[in-house]
Amino acid sequence: MIEIHSGDSVVVGIDGSTAAVYAAHWAVAEAIARDVPLRLVSCVQGPQRSDRMVIEYARTSLRAAHAAIDDTAAHVKVETAVVVGDPTAALISESRHAAMVCVGSVGIGRFAKALLGSTAAGVAESAACPAAVVRSYAPHRRSPAGSILVEVNDWEENHDVFAAAVAEAQLRGRPVVAVGVCPPETGMSGRQELLRRCAVWQDLYPDVYITAVPITTSFVRFLQTTSEPISLVVVGAREAAKLVKIIGSHADANSDNPSVLVARA
What we know:
By secondary structure, the chain is an alpha/beta fold. The chain has two domains: 9-134, 3-Layer(aba) Sandwich (Rossmann fold); 147-262, 3-Layer(aba) Sandwich (Rossmann fold). It contains nine helices and ten strands. The chain has helices spanning 18-34, 52-71, 87-95, 112-116, 118-126, 158-172, 188-204, 219-225, 243-253, and strands at residues 10-13, 38-44, 78-84, 100-104, 131-134, 147-152, 176-181, 210-215, 230-236, 259-263. Helix 9 links the parallel strand 9 (230-236) and strand 10 (259-263). Helix 1 (18-34) packs across helix 2 (52-71), helix 3 (87-95) runs parallel beside helix 5 (118-126) and helix 8 (219-225) packs parallel to helix 9. Pfam families: Usp. Residues 9-135 form the UspA domain. This is UspA domain-containing protein. InterPro entries: Rossmann-like_a/b/a_fold (IPR014729), Universal_stress_UspA (IPR006015), UspA (IPR006016). Belongs to the universal stress protein A family.
């Protein structure tokens, strides 16, 4: 199996929402693959940070998320922590020693920016480790047969991004769809380079089915129009700022509610 980002734990932000529990469920496989604990973190901030009811709500949210993980009978160690401070800053701090940090979100169409939430956007853009924004995940039912979608480009980080997509495909038993923007002016050269790169990865990991898809438009535009069922979109840190467009646009055309993984070396 391909080497994946190592760290002390896989961190999940817990705020009492169903989206956060979805994120915790999704993160179980990540923790098991790395043989590290699943760390559930709830944040208490502002003037209410010493309020006993607020603190008890945070603890109750953690207990509920912990119980939801226990119901899956997954063999994973679960840690819980209540931390004081802004959720975005706290999770970014946690990410410095984490293998991955995960948050839940429900971006839908033009409302994506509001529903994505500042915490999810902030963590995706600034985390020190890979960051996953999990849209929907139900461990007790069969997962949608969606692909792992990754953009192939010339940025230096793209090798790590593609590696992350292959690792997720191995972990979750999904094919990889590698999308490369090949404008008409590049002729066949762009398409041939995309096919070459995909062939290299296919040779290295024959257990993962990889499909190359050359396009003449932008990656985000492809997400807006494709009917390809997608379970996860893998992007690089440079593309984290596009998270709202990626989650919102694809939700308009695809009901599988794909999650997004921001890969980092």
